[in-house]
Structure formats: C-alpha cells, structure tokens
Design goal:
α3 crosses α4. By secondary structure, this protein is an alpha/beta fold. It has a single domain, classed as 3-Layer(aba) Sandwich (Collagenase (Catalytic Domain)), CATH 3.40.390.30. The longest helix is centred in the C-terminal third of the chain and has 21 residues. A four-stranded mixed β-sheet has the order 1-2-4-3, sandwiched between helices. It is built from five helices and four strands, in the order βαβαββααα. The mean pLDDT is 95.
Length: 142
C-alpha cells in the first residue's frame, strides 16, 4: 500500500516526498483508515478542466479533482492537482506556493476520508481539518 506522486504534461517536482508520504499516512491512520493506493497527479489547468468536463460535467477550472476508490476501511484514490491554479491561489492569498500545495494535497486526502465542502458548514469543517493537519505537517514533518 502506498502513495505515489506523478506529473501529467507539466514539469513539477514536489519537495520532501518521503516526509509528505509519512504525513499523509499519519492523517489516514489517525482517522481510523488503512492506506491503500493513493496517486497524487500534478497537472495543468487544461488537464484538470478536461477531467472536470469528461467525468464531472463541470466546465470550469479548479485546483483539485478527487476520485475515490475506497473499499471498506482502506483508503484509495486519485487526486489531480492543478499547479497553475494552486500558483494563482497562492499569489491571490499571498501565501507561499508550497503551503498552498500542501493544503490542496490534504484537501484531497480529506475528501477521500469522507469530508465534503458542498455547503458553508462543510467548508468550515474542511478548513478546520486542513489547518489542523497543516499544523501537524509543520510541527512534525518539515
């Protein structure tokens, strides 16, 4: 069971992959799940837009698309992250690019864990969870 990082049509190298994998694993186990196969794919806006159109009937850009393949208590899925949108959001919110990458990665993991962000209350809970796990990343892994 493992976590893999890939790129699709872009040049991007995530720093500290081993530490990020350890962090993700600890988040998953702390939520009472087992790690299956998780793929994190860094791609362009156009690639993510294509996924949105093909699989979700959405015709807009987004920073992340998550496909859940969980089975019982085993967490598995594909997380596609737009480097273009993450970079734009980091600039817009005046935060470090890697901080935003980490936020989007954990956002995808939280979706696989069953958290949602379709309404205001869910978004608030999701943001609290993101912040909790980002603090954990900074304190214990990086």
């Amino acid at each position: 069971m493992s976590i893999h990082f890939f790129t699709e049509g872009i040049a991007f190298d995530l720093k500290e992959k081993r530490k990020i994998k350890g962090w993700i694993g600890s988040v998953i186990s702390s939520e009472g799940k087992r790690l299956g196969e998780v793929n994190v794919v860094f791609a362009s806006d156009d690639y993510i837009l294509g996924l949105n159109k093909k699989y979700l009937n959405h015709d807009y850009f987004t920073d992340i698309v998550t496909f859940n393949y969980n089975r019982l208590e085993t967490l598995s899925g594909d997380i596609f992250i737009s480097i273009d949108t993450v970079r734009k959001n980091a600039d817009f919110y005046n935060i470090h690019f890697l901080d935003e990458i980490h936020r989007v990665i954990i956002h995808g993991i939280l979706h696989l864990l069953g958290f949602d962000d379709k309404n205001v209350d869910q978004k608030s809970i999701m943001r609290l969870q993101e912040n909790k796990w980002l603090d954990d990343l900074r304190l214990n892994y990086l």
